[in-house]
Structure to design on (365 residues):
C-alpha cells in the first residue's frame, strides 16, 4: 500500500536514479531532511518538497559525498514542479490547512 | 465571592458560544468536516452542556425526576461534544493511521460506556445535589471526558513543535503556528479543569461548588481557555503584528 505522498515518492525515486545512492539511502536521506523541518513523507506537498529540495537537500547530499549536489537539486526541484503540473496530485487536506482556515477573517493562503 | 469565582466559567461559556457558532458558520460555507466537529464540540461542551447542567443545579427545589432529566440531557450533550473532539483529533492529525482510528474508537466507547454507567447507577444525580459520591462511576466518567481534550491538546503541542521547524525555512505562517499553540493551551486548560474535578471528587466526594478555592481554580483555567480560544480565532491586528514580528526575530537568531 502506498503510504507516502507522491512528491516524496517521485523525488526519492529520482534521487536513486540520478545519484549513486541506493533506494534505502535515498529515501532515508530525504526522510531525515523532512523530519528536521517538521514535515512528514506521508503529507508533504509539492510546494513544500520543492523548498526542501532547493534549500536543504544540497547540504544533506553533500554529506553523503554526492557530487555537484546544488546543481542536481536545482534541476530536481524544477523537474518536480514540471512533473506535478503534468500529473496533478490530489493532496489530502493537512492539519496545517485546517488551522490556517480557523480564523475569523478567513484570509487566503499567502 | 462564589459568583466572582464563576466569572472564568462564564467567560469560557461565552468564548465557546462565539467561536463555536462562527466555526459552524464556516462549515455552512465550506462544508469541511473539521469546522463542523470543532464547532459542535465547543458549542456542546463549552456552552450547551454547562447551561443545561447549571439549570439542573439551580433547580434544587425541583423534583428528582426533573433534575435527573436535565442532568442526563446535559451529560449527553457534553458527550456528543467530546465525541466530536475525538473525531476532530483523529481526522485532522492522523487521518490515515489505523492505530489512531482504533484509539479514537476506544476513547468513544470509554466515554459512552462511562456515561451509561453513571446514569444506570443513579450517581449522575450527584452532579446536581451536594451529596458525596458512593462509587467509581463519576470519577471514571469525568476521566473519560477529560481524555478527549487532553488528546487534542497533546496533538496540538506536537504539531506546534513541527511547525516551529517549518517556520525556519518559510514553510509556515507564524500566525498559524501561534494559533496551533493557542488551541493546545486552551483545550489543555479545559482538560486540566476536568482533572481538577476528578481529583476533587476522589478526595471530597462532592462537586467543586462546595469549596470556593476549588471553583476559583477551575475558573482560572476557564479564563485561560477562553482567552486562548478567543485569541486563536479572533486575533486582533496588534496580536497579528506581534506574532509576525516575533517570528522574524526568531528567524534572525537561527544558527
Amino acid at each position: 500500500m502506498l503510504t507516502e505522498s507522491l512528491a516524496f515518492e517521485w523525488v526519492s525515486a529520482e534521487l536513486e536514479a540520478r545519484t549513486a545512492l541506493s533506494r534505502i539511502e535515498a529515501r532515508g536521506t530525504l526522510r531525515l531532511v523532512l523530519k528536521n523541518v517538521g514535515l512528514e513523507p506521508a503529507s508533504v506537498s509539492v510546494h513544500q518538497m520543492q523548498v526542501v529540495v532547493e534549500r536543504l537537500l544540497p547540504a544533506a547530499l553533500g554529506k553523503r559525498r554526492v557530487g555537484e549536489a546544488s546543481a542536481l537539486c536545482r534541476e530536481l526541484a524544477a523537474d518536480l514542479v514540471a512533473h506535478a503540473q503534468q500529473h496533478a496530485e490530489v493532496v489530502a487536506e493537512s492539519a496545517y490547512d485546517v488551522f490556517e482556515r480557523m480564523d475569523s477573517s478567513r484570509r487566503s493562503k499567502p | 465571592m462564589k459568583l466572582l469565582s464563576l466569572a472564568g466559567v462564564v467567560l469560557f461559556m461565552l468564548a465557546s458560544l462565539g467561536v463555536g457558532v462562527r466555526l459552524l458558520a464556516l462549515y455552512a460555507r465550506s462544508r469541511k468536516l473539521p469546522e463542523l466537529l470543532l464547532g459542535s464540540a465547543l458549542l456542546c461542551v463549552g456552552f450547551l452542556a454547562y447551561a443545561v447542567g447549571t439549570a439542573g443545579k439551580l433547580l434544587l427545589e425541583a423534583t428528582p425526576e426533573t433534575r435527573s432529566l436535565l442532568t442526563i440531557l446535559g451529560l449527553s450533550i457534553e458527550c456528543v461534544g467530546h465525541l466530536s473532539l475525538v473525531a476532530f483529533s483523529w481526522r485532522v492529525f492522523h487521518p490515515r493511521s489505523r492505530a489512531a482510528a482504533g484509539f479514537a474508537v476506544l476513547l468513544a466507547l470509554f466515554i459512552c460506556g462511562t456515561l451509561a454507567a453513571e446514569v444506570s447507577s443513579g450517581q449522575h444525580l450527584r452532579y446536581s445535589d451536594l451529596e458525596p459520591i458512593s462509587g467509581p462511576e463519576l470519577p471514571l466518567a469525568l476521566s473519560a471526558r477529560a481524555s478527549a481534550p487532553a488528546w487534542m491538546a497533546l496533538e496540538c503541542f506536537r504539531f506546534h513543535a513541527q511547525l516551529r521547524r517549518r517556520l525556519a525555512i518559510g514553510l509556515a505562517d507564524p500566525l498559524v503556528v501561534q494559533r496551533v499553540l493557542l488551541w493546545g493551551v486552551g483545550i489543555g486548560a479545559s482538560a486540566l479543569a476536568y482533572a481538577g474535578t476528578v481529583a476533587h471528587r476522589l478526595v471530597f466526594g462532592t462537586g467543586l461548588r462546595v469549596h470556593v478555592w476549588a471553583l476559583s481554580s477551575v475558573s482560572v483555567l476557564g479564563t485561560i481557555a477562553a482567552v486562548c480560544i478567543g485569541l486563536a480565532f479572533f486575533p486582533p491586528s496588534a496580536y497579528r503584528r506581534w506574532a509576525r514580528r516575533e517570528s522574524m526575530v526568531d528567524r534572525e537568531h537561527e544558527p
About this structure: The interface with chain A takes residues 22-23, 26, 30, 32, 34-35, 38, 92-93, 95-96, 159, 161-166, 168-173, 175-176, 179-180, 183, 232-235 of chain B (CB under 8 Å). Chain B has a mean pLDDT of 91. Residues 2-252 of chain B form a domain with the Rhopdopsin 7-helix transmembrane proteins fold (CATH 1.20.1070). Chain B has nine helices and no strands.
